[in-house]
Amino acid sequence: MTTHVKPLRKRAAWEALQAHYKKIQALHLRTLFANDPGRGERMAAGAAGIYLDYSKNRITDETLRLLVQLAEESGLRERIDAMFRGEKINITENRAVLHVALRAPREASVLTDGRNVVPEVHAVLDRMTDFSNRIRQGEWRGHTGEPIRNIVNIGIGGSDLGPAMAYEALKHYSDRRMTFRFVSNIDGTDFTEAVHDLAPEQTLFIVSSKTFTTLETMTNARTARAWLLKGLGGDEKSVAKHFVAVSTNEAEVKKFGIDTANMFGFWDWVGGRYSMDSAIGLSTMLAIGPDNFRTMLNGFHQMDEHFRITPFERNLPVLMALLTIWYTGFFDAHTVAVLPYDQYLRRFPAYLQQLTMESNGKYITLDGMKVDYQTSPIYWGEPGTNGQHSFYQLIHQGTRFIPCDFIAFDTSLNPLGQHHDILMANVFAQAEALAFGKTAEQVKAEGTPDWLVPHRVFEGNRPSNMIMAERLSPEILGKLVALYEHCVFTQGVIWQIDSFDQWGVELGKALAQRIVPELESEAEPELAHDSSTNNLIHRYRRGKSGL
Ligand code: F6P
């Protein structure tokens, strides 16, 4: 496919940014703040209850102007419209990209291939609602007549990370009489530990897989089936009451033996990592209830609308994306740290890793050319304040340049004495310390001996965003996720890559399928790998047979 957009480095705004970078690269945030007392209030934007303070970034008004120009020159406006119009912007898979339709209100219309998909979305949501109510109210019973008390989601990647993150994030709103577990890893330990204290009579498995062919998920699902049958005396009929499926692949669901009446569908225009608000969120709905789930969808939708219509200079996902482009493109930033100051968001960085890196970890452009610039940085992080006592040393005084996204809330869901004020004092202090540091003069003035001074100096000038909201609610979680989804989309448009395919995971999957029989065959296999892989396979075969 050829696009009308020039290669990144040839765009006028990129060239202007290069010249601009040379001028401002050494500017310190101390100077920027000292020269502009209103910077902290001015360089902030709010939308749909999310506040973004981006003033502690190494930018001037001119930087922002040029970055916005870059977004325009990259065709961002047209690409946003194309996505919302249901065009097949996932060109390598010839698919529309319509996760925004998953949270469109019932009366909305979102067309793809001339069909309005919103009624189908709501039909599935209604079925999920009915099912969730029946489970939560004890109407749907297990094979022996006991109510379902345990939900085990079996899935991996987008069919696990979203549900697992959302369950943790919204635990406060969940039905505490129920137990939720998430099995993803092919390592048998994951399944074993997930079910070790569960009664099969009271356990429901949700097999979540867009394709219903993923090796890990199908293996775990078969193990779950065997575990259930063993626990319930081997009656095959019990499967119907203890297994439901979430998938786009009806034929495979049937083949596995799950009644398609107990299948919740979604569509090929929902990417795995964009699916936590589809039926893949069934475990979330079971945990927090249908009303809360719909409130979360409404949060997503509000951010979608903000992204769709707001001018780029006030558009939160666009601003965040442009800052990442600025740092990866000009400051040689290789990573972004996501640091939520909320224990409930402890899985949020892991969730974002798939969203960001599976989407934008690509080196081929939409035109099929190799990029000559960096694409997705590595996203990583841990909740504050734990990270402070672990890796923050490197962010403050290491040799690497690491932009940070801090996420914090005005109020705690668990107000306990001084805890929240101390938590918030820490997040504000970290952003302040990173930006302004501590000079040698300040360190000396504290009476520090000369030899120790260099160790105690903080250069500062390390950028961060502060993302804040009133409290962590289902609605705010939806907004936060949509914020990052659209940030990733914007980055992909500027880097001119297909953010919605994931060919890079295929090779390893195919090789593993080839190696499995080589590990399991009775007879010594004839191996035709490289000498290292051959040796490792031989070594493993000897090791497992105790030779
Ligand atoms: O291996 C990558 C991937 O295809 C992800 O994109 C996806 O979220 C995950 O595997 C799981 O796929 P499925 O939902 O089809 O089991």
Automatic annotation (TrEMBL):
GO terms for biological process: gluconeogenesis; glucose 6-phosphate metabolic process; glycolytic process. InterPro entries: G6P_Isomerase (IPR001672), G6P_Isomerase_C (IPR023096), Phosphoglucose_isomerase_CS (IPR018189), SIS_dom_sf (IPR046348), SIS_PGI_1 (IPR035476), SIS_PGI_2 (IPR035482). It is an enzyme of class 5 (isomerase). Pfam families: PGI. It catalyses: alpha-D-glucose 6-phosphate = beta-D-fructose 6-phosphate. Keywords: Cytoplasm, Gluconeogenesis, Glycolysis, Isomerase. It is found in: Cytoplasm. GO terms for molecular function: carbohydrate derivative binding; glucose-6-phosphate isomerase activity; monosaccharide binding. Its EC number is 5.3.1.9. Pathway: Carbohydrate biosynthesis; gluconeogenesis; Carbohydrate degradation; glycolysis; D-glyceraldehyde 3-phosphate and glycerone phosphate from D-glucose: step 2/4. Belongs to the GPI family. Catalyzes the reversible isomerization of glucose-6-phosphate to fructose-6-phosphate. This is Glucose-6-phosphate isomerase.
